[in-house]
């Protein structure tokens, strides 16, 4: 990989490690330390996620207007200030809510910029820059969750201090290295004929992105069940909490260490990004079919292994296609949409799953989700019909 991608990978890992200090502990902190109900805690996390959606969209738009460097610096300053303020106002619920909004918004601004930069500085890399960013995110999640838990066991405010220090490290890295990672930007054309043609082309590309993302939303609604309804279900059937946590350890370890196997399979058998998504979708479907037939821990392990294989196909492919669809000067905006859709799925998923589980039971929820994957299969099939001149070969074969 080019040096620029390695810099972005290191930056993404630092960024996500810092963010992951806090997110697994939010509910515990609000319920145990601040004395809030689970309903209140859930509402605050929803607000935090909404701030992230807004940050995704604004960050992507700013990337196109003022460039990735200034947008990322703005986002990290907001997140860093919020983290240190959390430490300084330890024990205040009002301050916690406001700072979580700041953290969600600031972090949300940075992520689409990082993805857009990755595609811009290595345009010939195909799926590889986006896959590298995806893996680095998961490394950050694994490290941050583990270290954050250790810090919280000593003193909870150390979590916020550690978060702020990592954002400070990311700020230094960005100031030193990110200024020159702007990629290639297109030239504006003044002819009204060109402008009219470009407007029509932009509409077609945006429609293609919207169709693709409608299927992507379903994938995230399904994936979100593992952190919500499935988590509660494992407790109801007597699976110990540490065993449930181990499922996510398996997920993270596979994402990092199984990349050579996934790369071999894709290079040998999968010859387009659409085929890569199809493969992942049918694997996703299989994971929920397995879940519908098991109440033993080994079944959940098998389902998590299958799910993880599926996500390694789907998650990097969607931002890669978004980058290929993006008109010149819209790369950040398109990545912002993709990231906001993922966040939206994490928001809708627990509500949808909770209602389905309460009304019809967990087995019906699993069957329903397995059937819902037909929607992203159809959307993947048709999304590019309006842009037949674009080709979605992997570009890295």
From TrEMBL:
GO MF annotation: an example: transmembrane transporter activity
Gene3D superfamilies registered for this protein in UniProt: MFS general substrate transporter like domains
Pfam families in alphabetical order: MFS_1 (PF07690)
UniProt keyword terms in alphabetical order: Cell membrane, Membrane, Transmembrane, Transmembrane helix, Transport
Domain of life: Bacteria
Matches recorded under CDD domains: MFS_MdtH_MDR_like
GO cellular component assignments: plasma membrane
InterPro entries per UniProt: MFS (IPR011701), MFS_dom (IPR020846), MFS_trans_sf (IPR036259), MFS_Transporters (IPR050171)
Membrane topology, record value: Multi-pass membrane protein
Subcellular location, record wording: Cell membrane
Transmembrane parts of this sequence: 5-25, 37-59, 71-89, 95-118, 130-152, 158-178, 208-226, 246-266, 273-291, 364-383
UniProt domain Major facilitator superfamily (MFS) profile: residue ranges: 4-388
PANTHER family: MAJOR FACILITATOR SUPERFAMILY (MFS) PROFILE DOMAIN-CONTAINING PROTEIN, RESISTANCE PROTEIN MDTM, PUTATIVE-RELATED-RELATED
Protein name: MFS transporter
Species for this entry: Alkalicoccus halolimnae
């Amino acid at each position: 990989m080019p040096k620029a991608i390695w810099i972005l990978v290191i930056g993404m890992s630092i960024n996500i490690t810092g963010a992951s200090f806090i997110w697994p502990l939010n509910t515990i902190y609000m319920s145990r330390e601040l004395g809030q109900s689970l309903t209140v805690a859930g509402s605050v996390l929803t607000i935090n996620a909404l701030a992230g959606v807004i940050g995704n969209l604004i960050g992507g738009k700013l990337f196109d207007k003022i460039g990735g460097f200034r947008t990322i610096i703005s986002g990290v300053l907001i997140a860093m200030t919020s983290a240190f303020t959390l430490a300084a106002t330890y024990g205040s619920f009002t301050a916690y809510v406001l700072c979580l909004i700041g953290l969600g918004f600031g972090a949300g601004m940075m992520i689409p910029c990082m993805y857009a930069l990755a595609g811009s500085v290595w345009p010939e890399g195909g799926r590889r820059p986006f896959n590298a960013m995806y893996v680095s995110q998961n490394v950050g999640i694994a490290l941050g969750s583990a270290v954050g838990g250790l810090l919280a066991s000593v003193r909870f405010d150390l979590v916020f201090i550690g978060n702020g220090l990592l954002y400070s490290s990311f700020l230094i890295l960005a100031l030193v290295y990110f200024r020159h990672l702007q990629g290639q930007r297109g030239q504006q054309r003044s002819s009204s004929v060109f402008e009219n043609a470009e407007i029509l082309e932009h509409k077609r590309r945006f429609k293609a992105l919207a169709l693709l993302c409608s299927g992507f939303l379903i994938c995230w609604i399904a994936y979100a069940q593992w952190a919500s309804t499935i988590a509660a279900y494992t407790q109801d059937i007597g699976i110990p909490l540490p065993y449930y946590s181990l499922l996510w350890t398996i997920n993270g370890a596979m994402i990092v260490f199984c990349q050579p196997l996934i790369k071999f399979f894709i290079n040998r058998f999968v010859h387009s990004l659409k085929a890569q998504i199809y493969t992942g979708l049918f694997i996703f479907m299989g994971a929920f079919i397995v879940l519908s037939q098991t109440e033993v821990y080994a079944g959940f392990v098998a389902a998590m292994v299958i799910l993880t294989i599926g996500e390694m196909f789907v998650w990097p492919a969607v931002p890669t296609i978004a980058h290929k669809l993006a008109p010149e000067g819209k790369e950040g905006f398109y990545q912002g949409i993709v990231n906001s859709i993922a966040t939206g799925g994490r928001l809708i998923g627990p509500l949808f799953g909770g209602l389905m589980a309460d009304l019809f039971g967990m087995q019906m929820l699993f069957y329903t989700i397995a059937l819902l994957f037909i929607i992203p299969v159809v959307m993947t099939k048709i999304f590019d019909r309006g842009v037949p001149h674009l080709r979605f070969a992997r570009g890295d074969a």
